[in-house]
Structures are given as structure tokens and as C-alpha cells.
Design brief:
By secondary structure, the protein is mainly alpha-helical. The protein has one domain: Winged helix-like DNA-binding domain superfamily/Winged helix DNA-binding domain (Arc Repressor Mutant, subunit A, Orthogonal Bundle), CATH 1.10.10. Strands 1-3-2 form a three-stranded antiparallel β-sheet. Helix 2 packs across helix 4 and helix 6 packs across helix 7. The two termini are 20 Å apart.
């Protein structure tokens, strides 16, 4: 299956191809991030009624999987929906930024960032 067939990094086929499976607890956290776009662990904890430390752990796990971006602004750590994070980073760093640098800035795997950038350039996001 080519990457052209996927409509998003949240497409179940894309996730399965990368061997990413989401437990219901992670799905609840991911759903909150997708709704709010840019959140801290405190905000997610308030929405899910779970302790902040648990949400912080789940958000870090989603970031390691490569489906949620992580950006530090001062002392706060923000977790951002991946497509929004890529678009914000491109706007901040300029359209000619290298994918690897972009991926580093938002703490995401370069292959996923490349996929999002290609979709954005093709106008499919």
C-alpha cells in the first residue's frame, strides 16, 4: 500500500502499517489533543478527569509513537496535533526548512513529518 492512499496519519491503515496500536486510555488522550489542537498535560487531565502525571505519561507515549508533536515554550511543554504542529512550524521557520530540522523542532519522526509536508503541498490536508 503506497503512502498516497492514506488520507491522514490518523488513518487506521497508516497506524497499522507503522505497527501502532492505541489502547482505549491512549485513545481518550489522543481524542482530547485532536479536539483542542494544542494542550498541556494539565488541560488534558482536566478534560479526561485523570491525574496530570498519568496524562503526561500518555502524552509522552503518543509523542514517542510519532502521532503527537511536543514543543517546549519556556517552562511549559505543549503537545500539539501533528498536522497543526507541522503547519505552525513551517509558518515560523519558513517554507524552505528541511524536513529533518522541522521534525527536530517539533519532536516527531522525520518520515511522518515528510508525509504531512507532502500532503500539505499537494493540498490534501
Amino acid at each position: 500500500m503506497s503512502s498516497e492512499e492514506y488520507c491522514s496519519i490518523y488513518d487506521i491503515r497508516f497506524l497499522m502499517n507503522r505497527r501502532i496500536s492505541l489502547r482505549p486510555t491512549l485513545m481518550k488522550t489522543l481524542k482530547t489533543v485532536l479536539e483542542l489542537k494544542k494542550v498541556t498535560a494539565d488541560v488534558v487531565a482536566q478534560r479526561t478527569n485523570r491525574p496530570r502525571t498519568i496524562e503526561s505519561k500518555y502524552l509522552s507515549e503518543l509523542n514517542r509513537m510519532g502521532i503527537v508533536a511536543k514543543v517546549r515554550e519556556g517552562r511549559k511543554v505543549y503537545y500539539i496535533e501533528a498536522i497543526t504542529a507541522v503547519k505552525e512550524a513551517i509558518a515560523k521557520l519558513g517554507p524552505d526548512v528541511k524536513v529533518e530540522e522541522l521534525a527536530h523542532q517539533i519532536s516527531m519522526p522525520a518520515d511522518i513529518v515528510r508525509f504531512i509536508v507532502e500532503k500539505a503541498k499537494a493540498g490534501k490536508l
